[in-house]
């Protein structure tokens, strides 16, 4: 067991899936089947309405999914995120701790815990309502630099490029982590994040990032290359030691030293929902990296856990059998 401490920072968003009748959408005047960014009042209104329906709440947000995966595999992650001093904030923390993540969650009494409320109607259509809430209030005061200094890896994502305070905090933590000798892992997160912040991303990737994860859409925006191998090579030239370019069901590529390696997918039991595949992939990879496995093994572990999350709805890590997953990793991958 080589486990090392991992310090993750992300947007703490509660994933709230509620099974509701169509008439509720009409009552709330919410158009069905699309994603809405909503304000605090609307969020409160929906939360009040769904109390009488079956609801599944899970701690989400890309980085929290990654940290949770690492914990479920037996690694040692800590997670910093901001929640409100409310029911969902407390639930968020207790659920992430139950997964084995060390909580560095901060409670702020100036708004609601961020949430993504998915209203699922009888026809299985999903209507998503996202309110980012207090997670956008991250500041330098929220960072536990003592825990950071005892960590081996800092991990965060492009979703942090939102408010000025978030951006400044993350860049400051990256700089501090570099000075402390940590390895910095970064997931580009989303094509929109990089499109809006290409200049910033170029700078932080060049200055700080050691392990980069991106899917093909994101890698293309960063490099202008539409071929995964060319894009990966280009990112390596930016000074990134380890680059991972993901291509969904076509698998992924890893790039390090002078190695370029295609990593195949594992066939999922059933293809139900690929939400969070990338987050779980990062978790598997970072876990393997901490265990000091060769990078190709890290990517295979990543690919395997990502394939497992596809057979459950959302990022329900609780529904996966991690004893079985660890057996497979130990006997078939390593
Ligand atoms: N249908 C699938 N079957 C098996 N494995 C898959 C499938 N889809 C994705 N994966 C695995 O998950 C990895 C990451 O998926 P993907 O390329 O969709 O990342 P992403 O776009 O970052 O995902 P996300 O939407 O979570 O951000 C893939 O490289 C692959 O290993
Ligand atoms: Mg992704």
How is this structure best described in words?
The protein is α/β, with parallel strands linked by helices and 334 residues long. It has one domain: UDP-N-acetylmuramoyl-L-alanine:D-glutamate ligase, CATH 3.40.1190.20. It has 13 helices and 16 strands. Strand 11, helix 6 and strand 12 form a beta-alpha-beta unit. The longest helix is centred in the middle third of the chain and has 16 residues. The protein is globular and about 60 Å long. The model has no long low-confidence stretch (mean pLDDT 96). The structure holds adenosine-5'-triphosphate and magnesium ion. The site of magnesium ion (MG) has 4 residues, from loops.
Residue ranges: pLDDT <50 for 5 or more in a row? none
- Count helical runs: 13
* Shape assignment: globular
The CATH homologous superfamily name equals Ribokinase
Number of strands: 16
Mean pLDDT: 96
Give me a quick take on this structure.
Strands 7-5-1-11-12-13-14-15-16 form a 9-stranded mixed β-sheet, with helices on both faces. Strands 3-10-9-2-4 form a 5-stranded mixed β-sheet.
């Amino acid at each position: 067991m080589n486990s090392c401490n991992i310090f993750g920072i992300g947007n703490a968003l509660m994933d709230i899936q509620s099974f509701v009748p169509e008439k509720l959408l009409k009552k709330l005047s919410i158009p069905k089947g699309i994603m809405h960014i909503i304000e605090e009042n609307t969020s409160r209104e929906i939360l009040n309405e769904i109390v009488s329906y079956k609801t599944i709440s899970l701690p989400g947000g890309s980085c929290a999914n990654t940290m949770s995966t690492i914990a479920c595999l037996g690694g040692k992650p800590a997670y910093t995120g901001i929640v409100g001093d409310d029911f969902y904030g407390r639930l968020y923390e207790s659920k992430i701790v139950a997964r084995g993540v060390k909580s560095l969650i901060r409670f702020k009494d100036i708004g609601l815990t961020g949430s993504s409320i998915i209203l699922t109607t009888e026809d299985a259509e999903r209507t998503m309502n996202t309110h980012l809430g207090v997670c956008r209030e991250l500041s330098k005061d929220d960072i536990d630099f003592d825990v950071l200094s005892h960590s081996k890896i800092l991990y965060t994502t492009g979703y942090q490029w939102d408010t000025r305070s978030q951006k400044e905090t993350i860049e400051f933590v990256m700089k501090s982590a570099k000075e402390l000798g940590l390895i910095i892992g970064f997931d580009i997160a989303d094509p929109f994040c990089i499109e809006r912040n290409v200049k910033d991303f170029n700078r932080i990737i060049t200055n700080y990032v050691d392990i980069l994860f991106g899917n093909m859409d994101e890698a293309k925006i960063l490099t202008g290359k539409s071929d995964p191998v060319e894009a990966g090579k280009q990112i390596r030239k930016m000074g990134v030691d380890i680059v991972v370019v993901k291509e969904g069901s076509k698998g992924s590529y890893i790039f390090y030293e002078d190695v370029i390696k295609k990593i195949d997918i594992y066939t999922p039991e059933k293809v139900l929902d690929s939400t969070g595949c990338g987050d779980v992939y990062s978790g598997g990879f970072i876990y393997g990296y901490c265990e000091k496995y060769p990078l190709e093994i890290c990517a295979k572990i990543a690919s395997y856990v990502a394939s497992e999350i596809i057979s459950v709805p959302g990022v329900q890590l609780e529904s996966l059998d991690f004893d079985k997953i660890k057996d497979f990793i130990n006997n078939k991958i390593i």
